[in-house]
Amino acid sequence: MINKLFRKKSVDQILKDSQEGSGLAKVLGVKDLVSLGIAAIVGAGIFSTIGLASFEGGPAISLLFIFVAFACVFTALAYAQFASTVPVSGSAYTYAYVAFGELFAWIIGWALVLEYAVSNTVVAISWSQYFVSMLEGFGIMLPKWLTMAPGYALDAHAKFLSDGMAAMNVADKVGLEAYMTAPRIGDIPIIFDFPAGLVTLLVTWLVYIGIKESQRASNIMVMIKVGIIILVVVGGVFFIAPENWTPFAPNGLRGVMGSVAAVFFAFIGFDSISTTAEECKNPQRDLPRAMIICLIICTVLYVAITLVLTGMVNYTELNVKDPLAFVFKYVGFDHMAGIVSVTSVIAITSALLVYQLAQPRIWMTMSRDGLLSKRFARIHPKYRTPSYATIVTGIVVAIPSLFFKMDFFVDLTSVGTFFAFILVCAGVLYMDHVGLSAKSKFKVPYINGKYIIGAGFVLAWVLVYNYAQGAIEEWRSLSFAEVIEHKSLVLVFWFSWVLLAVLGFKHNFSLLPVIGILINLYLMSELGASNWIIFILWLAIGLIIYFAYGYRHSKLNKITAS
After folding, report:
1. Which pTM value belongs to this model?
2. What share of the chain is helix, strand, coil (3-state, %, to 5)?
3. pLDDT tens, 60-94?
4. Which residues share a beta bridge with 147?
5. Where do the domains of the chain lie, and which CATH numbers do they carry?
6. What is the CA radius of gyration of the chain?
7. Separation between Cα atoms, residue 180 and residue 175, nearest integer Å
8. How far apart are CA 386 and CA 377, in angstroms?
9. Which residues belong to any copy of the Cationic amino acid transporter C-terminal domain (predicted)?
10. Which of 42, 223, 256, 320 has its CA 20 to 30 A from that of 183?
């Protein structure tokens, strides 16, 4: 049974399966892929979570964007090599099938549900907030009970009962209004986020009717969103007060790294390009180029916008849901704030579109392999899209967006994505080891890490000993149980570095994928333990589904049995 769990698919077999069961329209060029990538990356992150990140880390959050982009570059190189070797839909799921076998492929596929479907819930909720704000700017007031998750209203009501009206901020008062004015079934208030659910269904319909239609809509929205970001940067420069950049890191390294989830969420999506491999005209050439170009463009935009925001307004004022519009209201430029609000709705819609495009193609590929029902691989005879998988994706995103708070999903999304990124980087090491890299039309530049990985470990500990005495004292003050509870992920990071140093010395590992693994592991260690508990539960549910259906129906299982 163990051997069956780790059975692998060859590259030739995967390519053959995709040619037999695809039928997808090959219409995407490198410009289209870059557009889709920017559409996915520049979304709710820069229009929403960037405010919270700046509030916690100050102007220094711009450096965290560079650091996270640095991690994503190494991961993007690994994705690009896989995409040039296995140019089919499925992204990290397919790559794991080649490198690590079926069980890991299923785990990654299940984790990608978090990255695409769950993160799209965040995008839909963020879109709703900007949309409601835009309508209010035009004098159209939706009932508050139609514009938020019930959790916000219930929390506001509880705060009102315990602390009174004087202790409530503006957001609390809006939540209380929703609770008080909502229609009721018995004593239960009817509260849900109607715009979030509606936009999800509309975007799902657009994705359903065709990749070309989706790509055209995406291109238009990307031009608008990049234009407004450049406008914000250029216009905001004239309102920058340099004293707002002092102190640069008001909460120190802890404040900066505490925003890892929010900042990393802003980069999630570049890997979604790889899910469209079967709809590319020349995937081996265009996918690697598109991923790198996307990351470069988006990093420059993120760093510029962060420096402008924290220069226009003191970081303590940026704990808002619409920071780009807020800073112009703050400096009295209301017309610009209105323009930003309107275009933000368009910008976030494009991110929603790309995520809704990616998730069905993951499920379609898993279905081809027999791990999911055959219905998920069904291609619409007219529109040439995975029709059933697209409809299911719309339902999976729309329902949670109606009823759940956005905060719940942000960190959880990052956990699943880090997990996928690490396995993709590790997969390149495997490809190098067994010779699969010889089939790659794009390869991660090879730098022999035989001695460098171990030397880097020693250097890291020298730096920790000389410049992180505060962290060392914190560790010494913790009991064994507290270390396991709060620092176990940090221990995993250091242990993994030692293991990679030993294996790298033995097998001459390529340095760049190792750096990708270590940086992603470090960023993972900065996420809260509660997110990991939820993620482990999520994986447990996935394993139950795999052993109940996927293991028995797997095409590889049938081949082995015959």
Report:
1. 0.77
2. 80, 0, 20
3. 888 888 888 877 888 888 887 877 777 666 567 77
4. 193
5. 2-138+195-432 (1.20.1740.10), 150-191 (no CATH)
6. 24
7. 9
8. 6
9. 511-554
10. 320
